[in-house]
Design goal:
Elements: H1 2-35, E1 41-47, E2 50-55, E3 63-69, E4 75-81, E5 85-88, E6 96-104, E7 113-118, E8 125-130, E9 135-139, E10 147-154, E11 161-167, E12 172-175, E13 183-192, E14 195-196, E15 203-206, E16 215-219, E17 222-226, E18 235-243, E19 246-254, E20 259-262, E21 270-278, E22 291-294, E23 302-308, H2 313-325, E24 331-334, H3 336-339, H4 343-351, E25 355-358, H5 371-389, H6 405-410, E26 415-416, E27 420-421, H7 424-427, H8 430-440, E28 445-450, H9 454-469, E29 473-474, H10 477-483, E30 493-494
Parallel strand pairs: 23-24, 23-28, 23-29, 24-25, 26-30, 27-28
Antiparallel strand pairs: 1-2, 2-5, 3-4, 3-6, 6-7, 8-9, 9-12, 10-11, 10-13, 13-14, 13-15, 16-17, 17-20, 18-19, 18-21, 21-22
Helix pairs in contact: 2-4, 2-9, 8-9
The structure holds zinc ion (ZN).
Length: about 500
Amino acid sequence: MLKMKKLLKVFFAMTLTAFLLFSFECLAAKDSLESAQSVKIKAVQNLSGCVKISWEKFDGALSYELEKKMSNGKWQKIYEGETRTYKDSEVEDGKVYFYRVRAVLENSVSAFGTKSTKFLKAPSLKSVKNSTNGVLIKWEKCQNATGYKIYRKSESAKKYKLLKTVGANTLNFTDKKATGFLKYTYKIKQQSANYISATSEVVSLLYVPCVKNVTAKNSPNGIKITWNSISSSKGYSVWRKISGEEWKKIGVSKGEKNYYIDKKCTYGKKAYYKVRAYYNAKNYGVFGNTASLYTVNPNKKMVALTYDDGPYTPVTGRILDCLEKNKARATFFVVGSRVDTYSDCIKREAKLGCEIANHTYSHTSLTKLSKSDIKNEIEKTDNLIKKYTGNSVNLVRAPGGAVNQTVKDSVSHPLINWSVDTLDWSHRTASKTVSNIKANVRDGSIVLMHDLYSATADASETIIPYLVKNGYQLVTVSEMMDAKGVTMKNGNLYRSA
Ligand code: ZN
């Protein structure tokens, strides 16, 4: 019994002590929570390859403890020290990280201040290049991005300017507002929801615009290549295709001079030219469009065979076969109402480098029509030719060659008649057509025939090789006018070059 009493006493004493201790601890804990303030985290910031945590000074702090919530949900101390910033490089793109910081005081600790961020790696710029329409910026895809922000700084500016925010699937941007011959610096950031990454590396370039509207034409001095001038350009380099994909720089045009004459091309072939602007030896724009043409030797005699009233495959096809075989070209003044039916013919004419010109839609005499009816006859045919060849029409021949002032005022192309009339449509005899041409042809002639009659195909099969053999270049009307230096005007009538 005595033993029992003693035991009870001990038990009682222990319980009381435990209770008191527990109460005291509770009290103390409550005290410290209420009195201690938390550390204020200034920023949790995405930098390149790490998250930077920085916090404000805490009065009385001896040091600070930084903890990070791990993937198992537990907090782990990743730093302890006096410095108030820390860079955590144990981070993965697109993951959210929680950080908390407390101050270690003389006899206690402060409460934690907590902040989080989603780490987004700095995106990588793949390239910054001059392009056809401006500066083309390309970057590598970031898996978790919901978009990208593109920034630009011009040479004279102090700050970067946000150019554009694009969606997650866009991986390039063309800065169309860049001004020629200025230096620009670009950088990008990725974003994911409300989070934003550090900036990519910066890339600079001197913007050299692309040359526009390159054209190549025959001229009495050689091949004249022209293009739209770019203001404040230092110069242009002109290139000719040598073979396949091989190009050769054939010369430069300095300053804003926007043409170059190639005197060294091989005549009688198709030639290709392209041009680019430069700033200096290191800074070039991209090449503009490639211009091509059939070259005509201005110092060698030439003739333009013309065929009216087609297309008509049984005849036109034979003429085209013969032209192709003799590496020659002709001009076909087609009747618009026939174009849909013989569209294959039109396409082949274009493919062989022949000129397809306008002989009205319904082959009615234009001199009897009103201004608006004339325009309608011409426009309908222009559109049909363009539909099948992709080329704009340059020339018109009025039916019968009949032209008056109303026609001249209404037609928005040069009007082409002829200097050698074979009368093939009337006699329909090949030998007469051939002898007529042989008797009258000279350098600069425009010969009139009609690709409706088999006799005309027969005549062509004789006269085409004959003319080639006799030193004539068989060219289109436009090529001949260019090579002879004749500048044709809309509504003016021409009979030869
Ligand atoms: Zn006709």
